[in-house]
Amino acid sequence: MRHAFPAEFGGIAGTTTTSLAEILGAFSYALDLTEGQPEGHALRSCWIASRMAAALGLSAEERRTVYYATLLKDLGCSSNAARVAELYLADDRAIKQGFKLIPQGLASTLRFVFSRTGAGGPLRARTKAILTILRNGEDLVHELIETRCMRGADIARQLRFPEPVALAVAALDEHWDGTGKPLGLRGTAVPVAARLALLAQIADVFNVAGGPQAARAEVEARSGSWFDPELVGLFLTMSKDTGFWADLADPALEQRLRGFEPAEVRVAVDDDYLDDIAAAFGAVIDAKSPFTGGHSERVGNYAAALGERLDIPADHRRAVRRAAMLHDVGKLGVSSRVLEKPGKLDAVEWAEMRSHAVHTMAILGRIAPLREMATIAGAHHERLDGRGYPLGLDEMLIARESRIITVCDFFDALTADRPYRPAMSRAQALEVMAGEVGRAIDAEVFAALREVVG
What we know:
Layout: H1 20-34, H2 41-55, H3 60-71, H4 81-88, H5 92-100, H6 106-116, H7 123-158, H8 163-170, H9 192-210, H10 212-221, H11 229-238, H12 242-248, H13 253-257, H14 271-286, H15 295-309, H16 314-325, H17 336-339, H18 347-365, H19 374-378, H20 400-414, H21 426-434, H22 443-453
Helix pairs in contact: 2-3, 2-9, 3-8, 3-9, 4-5, 4-7, 7-8, 8-9, 9-10, 14-16, 15-16, 15-20, 15-22, 20-21
């Protein structure tokens, strides 16, 4: 069945000339982080699925659905990260990465559960966690997949994609034989975009881990169970060509991939749409932890209000708000075991936590209309006294915009529950912050915050 895209997908006029494909292609690196996948996984999966969609002769609308459903297949993955870490007593990213590489069969699954659950931890805790997984395995898998897929579909809609893209994201883990989740769809009831995305995902992870022959063997082994046999046959034919695999290693793959987005339905991004994209990825970020729901949006709103109070021009204020909404995008690359730890972080954990600011700068630096704000957003843990991170900047080098985001982030963190303490009242938070004026935070910006939040 073919679906027509709404009229607005024919192109959006605006002040930004960057394409949607370029922006979301860059953001896909953040999704790779939360899945524990090697850099470029989503791009490579999209390349495989898009090549197959073209070979199938799908319409422009269908090819565009395949393109974005595969590129953004992991939109909802941050939403189950904390639960995965809780169940397996392990780094959620490592568990997710390893889970994708389990060969078919109960024996392989059991080996994974016994070897990876609470590895290196106390025996009693490990035993309890393993028994919980064994007793409730089917229900737990359904819970994790449903959480991820439904959340991903909702964010796809927030990104202005029409229903076929959202439905394909929701159906990523449905199988040809009806044994998939969360809906148990079977055969052609599984959207073709979802069928292609799942096959491409498995092909990429097994190729990265074991090379082309491993990828081909695994895809073939799942024919008729996970995968549509017709699509498996097409994949095996196409992947005989060594050039098929060479393309996946091309440093220019990200740029080349944009050519697969059909020109007839290509989209430019204006400022309003860019705001929506920033808000949607802010929601992806906040879903990583049960303690951060709404954090990115609130920090963005506080930053906009402080910017107005400090007479920052409207267009620049808008850019600061986007940077504020995306300041924690690098936390998608931090283990939930670190983010959710109720006690003090050890040296290794603290180094991992600090790395999120570097990840933020790297991800935003890939996105043309956000590039100028990459360092601004990544500097939200710098201090005026030079004792912050990641670069140890002092008051001579910290931009005013970063000072705004720092104050807003600090305030929102204090007034929200955290694993290591309950939320403070506004008055308590302001009192704590007052003690950091001149050392960690800017006096003028803090005064503006006081005026805004009362």
